[in-house]
Write a structure and sequence with these properties.
The chain has about 1000 residues and is mostly helical. It is built from 53 helices and two strands.
């Protein structure tokens, strides 16, 4: 019975064991593991072979199931069953386990536990390959090669991989012949057949077997599924390139360049040179530009051939940058010399030469290569550049370096310094302009240039306010030999007249104005009209009214400069000549002919005064009331009211007169403005016997103190005398005493204003501003207009823009004089622009442009401000026409800024070609405008960056860094952008393609991957 039970138990154990084997073969490792575990539990006998095998399979199943304890179980099996024939299998499984996890060092350790002599196929081949591959991964190539070499069983799944890696090791050791045999033996192999052609062509390339390489490579490229197709194309193309078959090489080389493989600088150069030799210059330039930043012989060669390509493609400005880059390297002396000359020559030929690089280049060439055939030609070019350069400072500095410049250079120096002086004058930098004009006079080779320089020196003195020196210099010009040949000869007479006029020298000024108007060839009617006006003004100030009248009539007849003023002055001189009827006719003609004249209020007032003088009181009252009603902000309103009141009083209409006089007292709360009205009130109340009412009125006025009136007047008059005598220091002291004693004195308004004037003349602008602002903030008074002008100016100068804007706005409401009204609009425009109220700035600018007093400089300023305001409001279309006007008529800095803004507009609209042309125009025309030149080049670099042309972008920015002298935003931005470009240059051109994966199945059915590592260097 016991034997029967043992037999049954053994049968059950064997049954579970056999089921486990069957399931293991079917790769159902989980179920198999359960059966093996039951078998061990049912018959636990460590000495049983079945039990040992079951334990082995339990560990093997755990390994197949990736259980964490699988390695432990296999080690336990080896420890418990060291004599079992399964120990070899266990060590191999542990080794494979670590092999699969790519723990190569541990895999080698466990493979070393195997008894090699006991291994037979297929285990031997598996061991040799995996042990060899693990050594290969650990870069122990000698051990790996020895193991791969021992593999002899060609039927093994591991044999072909072993041959492959052995060939690969030989290849990496430059044993090309041996490697070639190994790779060739794998041609046609189902797993390696697609890979080895790549190695074979590489080997043929190293062996310089170009014919064989081309033949072999083209055969494989016919198969669209060939591995590493792009790399093989590169090698075939390179072989054809070495055979100078450039046209045939291009398709293969470009095929590689369009792949995702990383590229070497030689790849770009090879394809670029092939394109160049095949006269595909645009394509060549694209390739050369990608390696032109390399600081080596290849980079210099690429830069030079980039220049050659651009030159042949007709892109001279691009070629210029490339040649310049090539001159900065010393790897090839011949390339450097030729590139330097070509850079200089292109800089001369092109209008685009930002920093007059041609000067430095030609001078460098002459100094470095004095005996070359091209040296004399270089010097001739250099002289021509000096004569045409617009980068005046660079040209002058360059000529200054010559110890003994020849005649041609001295003449060039005279012209360059003159041009620079005039440019600075246009920028209103008069002191700097004088310096350059004096430098121009250093070499007196052209009498005409000498005369012109003298004239512009006189202009500088005039605009600086040094009228005496201006007169002297104008006269020096007039009597110089070359003056008559200049367009300024007669204009100088006009200017001398104005210089005297500005000094209130009314006796001297007329003779010069008369010389101007008497010049028969003079065609400028506006200036002729203005000169006659000034002659009239001079005689008017000299009380020579007959002469004044004559010239005012001349000016009125020409009618090209302030015709309404001329007509008004005709009327005023007629009045002074006692021709009241003629005066009335002239004033009525003025009102009729110029309904928008700023002199209408004065004209109506004077018409009223004429009617009073002629006894036509009703007509007078109508005209005077028109002043009050139609011109409420006019300074003539108070005068008109006084005349109205006096007219009523003279007509014995006391109540009407009293009403008007009291109105004046209420609306003009200063003694000076109300004195006449108060006299009228006093007379009426006295006539009516109501002196008490007059006393009551006086006591209610805080600006009149009867008890102190006499003392007040004495103290004020003492200060006023000092003021009108021009003794400002003493006047300020006297006004201070007066205001300290009579804080609200009768003449406090006058004292405040006159003190401000004196303080301003003494250079104490801060103190003066306090008084100007005080007067400006009072209700309308006789000083309101000039005080508002001064208060607005000082506020603006102190950057108090909201306050300045307020004063300018009030000035536009209260101002009477055209110049002040124009200044109010210009001031508002400037303040609004700074405060980013762009709509307001535009409106003020447009109003200012309607003024006949707007001079050329202010017109350009309004144009550019309106344009910039529209750009800020994202209205480029509205800005365009104004910018065009600035470009045509602005000063160099204004025109340069406008050109830049136009170019920026085109860039923002993706019109890159148009923007580029405009930047070139900026560089050509305004080389002396350093800031805008720099901004233009920054924009040009953005254009190139947008196109993906890193070379041109970097060359442009480097030009700024090397030549821009100011340490400001331009240079800082250029340096930042260069860093960005250099970072882009360092980025890999493309993503490296993954290495080829060659799958194969091991005997134990575990799917493995053999990764063939390439070390081909794309050489």
């Amino acid at each position: 019975m016991l034997v029967a039970q043992m037999t049954q138990s053994f049968d059950n154990e064997l049954l579970e064991y056999n089921r486990g084997l069957e399931l293991y073969e079917k790769q159902k490792f989980g179920a198999a593991k359960d059966q093996f575990e039951k078998s061990v539990e049912r018959f636990d006998n460590q000495h049983s072979e079945i039990s040992a095998n079951a334990d082995f399979y339990i560990a093997a199943c755990a390994l197949k199931l990736f259980h964490k304890d699988s390695e432990f179980l296999l080690k336990e099996f080896v420890r418990n069953y060291s004599a079992s024939p399964r120990v070899q299998d266990a060590w191999l499984l542990i080794g494979n386990y670590n092999y699969r996890k790519k723990k190569w060092e541990k895999a080698i350790h466990y493979y070393d536990q195997l008894s090699i002599p006991d291994l037979v196929e297929p285990m031997l081949s598996e061991y040799l390959f995996k042990m060899g591959y693990a050594h290969f991964q650990e870069e122990q190539l000698d051990e790996a090669a020895d193991l791969f070499f021992q593999m002899k069983d060609q039927s093994s799944v591991y044999y072909a991989p072993g041959v492959y890696y052995l060939a690969h090791i030989n290849y990496s050791r430059e044993k090309y012949a041996t490697a070639l045999k190994g790779f060739q033996s794998l041609e046609g192999h189902p797993q390696f057949g697609d890979v080895v052609p790549y190695y074979i062509v590489q080997v043929l390339h190293y062996q310089k077997e170009f014919d064989q390489l081309v033949s072999y490579g083209q055969k494989f490229l016919g198969n669209k599924d060939v591995k590493r197709r792009a790399e093989i194309s590169r090698l075939v193309g390179d072989a054809l390139f070495n055979q100078q078959a450039y046209a045939e090489a291009i398709p293969f080389l470009s095929d590689f360049m369009s792949s995702r493989y990383s590229k070497q600088k030689e790849d770009y150069y090879t394809l670029g040179y092939a394109y160049y030799k095949n006269e595909q210059f645009e394509d060549a330039a694209e390739q050369f530009s990608k390696i032109s930043y390399n600081e080596d012989a290849t980079g210099q060669n690429a830069q030079y051939h980039l220049g050659e390509s651009y030159l042949r493609a007709g892109k001279k400005s691009y070629a210029r940058n490339a040649y310049r880059a090539a001159t900065r390297m010393d790897f090839d002396a011949d390339i450097k010399e030729d590139a330097l000359y070509k850079f200089a020559l292109l800089s001369y030929e092109l209008s685009y030469d930002p920093y007059d690089g041609a000067i430095a280049a030609f001078k460098e060439y002459i100094a470095e290569y004095p005996d070359r055939e091209r040296t004399k030609e270089a010097y001739d070019y250099l002289v021509n550049i000096y004569l045409t350069s617009k980068n005046y400072d660079a040209a002058l500095a360059s000529i200054d370096e010559y110890e003994d410049p020849d005649i041609r250079l001295k003449e060039a120096y005279q012209r360059i310094a003159f041009n620079k002086g005039v440019t600075l004058f246009q920028e209103r930098l008069f002191v700097d302009a004088l310096s350059y004009l004096d430098r121009s006079l250093k070499f007196d080779y052209s009498k005409t240039v000498t005369a012109k320089a003298t004239y512009w020196k006189a202009e500088c003195h005039y605009y600086r306010g040094d009228y005496a020196k201006a007169v002297k210099t104008y006269e020096e010009f007039i009597y110089s030999p070359g003056a008559v040949l200049t367009p300024y000869f007669n204009l100088a007479n006009y200017n001398v007249g104005y210089a005297y006029f500005q000094q209130d020298k009314f006796i001297e000024a007329p003779s010069w104005f008369r010389r101007f108007v008497g010049f028969k060839k003079e065609q400028d009617e506006a200036k002729l009209s203005d000169a006659n006006l000034r002659i009239g003004d001079c005689y008017f100030m000299l009380n020579q009214y007959d002469a004044a009248f004559e010239y005012y009539v001349y000016a009125s007849e020409i009618g090209k400069s302030d015709p309404d003023y001329a007509m008004y002055q005709v009327a005023m001189t007629q009045g002074l000549l006692k021709k009241l009827s003629d005066k009335l006719t002239s004033l009525q003609n003025l009102v009729s002919a110029y309904p928008n004249s700023h002199y209408l209020d004065a004209a109506h007032y004077e018409i009223g005064r004429v009617h009073i003088a002629q006894g036509r009181d009703q007509y007078a009252l109508t005209s005077l009331q028109m002043v009050v009603d139609d011109f409420p902000g006019s300074s003539y309103v108070r005068k008109a009211l006084v005349s109205i009141g006096q007219t009523h009083y003279n007509g014995q209409q006391d109540e009407k007169a009293l009403e008007v006089f009291l109105k004046i007292v209420r609306e003009y709360p200063t003694y000076e403005d109300t004195r006449e009205a108060l006299i009228g009130v006093q007379n009426i109340y006295t006539d009516q016997g109501h002196v008490d009412k007059y006393e009551e009125l006086i006591s209610s006025l805080d600006f009149v103190n009867i008890s102190d009136m006499a003392l007040d007047s004495i103290n004020y008059e003492a200060a006023e005398i000092q003021y009108f005598n021009g003794q400002c220091k003493e006047a300020v002291t006297a006004f201070n005493k007066y205001l300290d004693r009579f804080g609200k004195g009768i003449f406090s308004l006058n004292a405040r204003y006159y003190r401000a004037e004196c303080l301003s003349r003494m250079g104490q602008d801060v103190k003066a501003a306090v008084d100007y602002e005080y007067v400006a903030d009072l209700p309308r008074n006789k000083f309101s207009e000039p005080a508002l002008v001064k208060a607005a100016r000082t506020s603006y100068a102190d950057s108090k823009y909201p306050q300045a804007l307020g004063y300018y706005k009030r000035l536009s409401l209260l101002g009477q004089y055209k110049n002040n009204l124009l200044e109010s609009e210009i001031g508002q425009m400037r303040c609004n622009f700074i405060l980013k109220n762009y709509q307001g700035a535009i409106a003020n600018g447009i109003i200012a442009q309607e003024s006949e007093k707007l001079d050329h400089n202010l017109r350009v300023e309004t144009d550019i401000t309106i344009a910039k305001s529209n750009l800020a409001l994202n209205s480029p279309g509205a800005a365009s026409s104004y910018l065009s006007q600035v470009i045509l008529s602005g000063s160099p800095s204004q025109a340069a800024e406008a050109t830049y803004l136009m170019a920026k507009m085109e860039f923002d609209s993706d019109m890159l070609d148009t923007s580029e042309v405009m930047v070139f125009s900026l560089v050509e025309a305004y080389q002396s405008e350093s800031f805008w030149l720099g901004k233009g080049l920054l924009l040009l670099s953005d254009i190139y960056m947008t196109r993906g042309d890193l070379f041109q972008a970097k060359a442009t920015l480097q030009n700024i860094v090397d030549n821009y002298e100011e340490e400001d935003e331009v240079k800082a931005e250029a340096e930042e952008k260069i860093i960005t470009i250099e970072e882009l240059e360092l980025l890999e051109e493309a993503v490296e393609m993954p290495d080829l994966e060659i799958p194969f199945n091991a005997e134990d059915t575990v799917s493995e991957e053999i990764i063939p590592i390439d070390s081909l260097n794309n050489e």
